[in-house]
Amino acid sequence: MLTITLNRPDVLNAFNTAMHEGFRTALKEARDQDVRAVVLTGAGRGFCVGQDLNEFREGADDVGERLRKNYNPSVLALRTLDKPVLAAVNGVAAGAGLALACACDLRLSAASATFVPAFVNIGLVPDTGATYFVTRLLGYSRAFEWLCSGRRLSAADAHAWGLVLEVVEDGRLAERAAGLAATLAALPTGAIGMTKRLLERAALSDLAEQLELEAQLQSVAVGSEDFREGVSAFLEKREPRFTGR
Ligand code: LHQ
Fold it and tell me: How far is CA 100 from the centre of its chain?
């Protein structure tokens, strides 16, 4: 299991160029086959508040290029990890930080954490995939209302909306995230990675295409050591020991 900690606590882990570089490096490490679950969290009292607005004091540069160069490759790298990715939202998640939390497969939230789209509050449109992820997670109506109001959502409301899986007492979030990540890491990782691909495609495919992709990926799954182990364990009436191979 690998924990990626966004670490600029003085500014609630807002992204500057150096933090983008560190994040890219961590996401490369996360691709290692021995890493079978990833936790994304923040240092200090925030999760991540997106772009460091201090970088705009002197006026905006080419924001489109900034997104293409830094945010977009990272969100794609995060989203295409073929293993479970869990956001442990320890404090406020805003702007691109909210988008990154939503790009993860699951979200655990500290009871005091909050979720703020933020983009519209400074006259921007959502970026870093926020429109893609929030619409898929919440549906159009809630996505429209939330992203266009920019209002702060409590952990309890985020849970009621299905945005977060569980709300955890503040001091226990890291422990709970590590426990859940360990459970996820013990699953047949190859099958989990392929399930992610299938779920991603499901929104775009017609039924016939989806059935075909399921058939293709099932042929791959059947060739794995974990499939052999799963069947043996079932027949021997014991718990399986999956290795992710
Ligand atoms: C911050 C920030 C911040 C710097 C709090 N920067 N210091 C990417 C590329 C290019 C263009 C456009 O888009 C993007 C993607 C984006 O992410 S755009 C959206 C950027 N983020 C925001 O607009 C969020 C701005 N922050 C807030 O609205 C509030 O701070 C939230 C709601 C996040 C948290 O509120 P509070 O819990 O009340 O905390 P606070 O406001 O007191 O903030 C604590 C400190 O963090 C404070 O500094 P200080 O020195 O006064 O303690 C803030 O200035 C600093 N901070 N966000 N994005």
Answer: 6
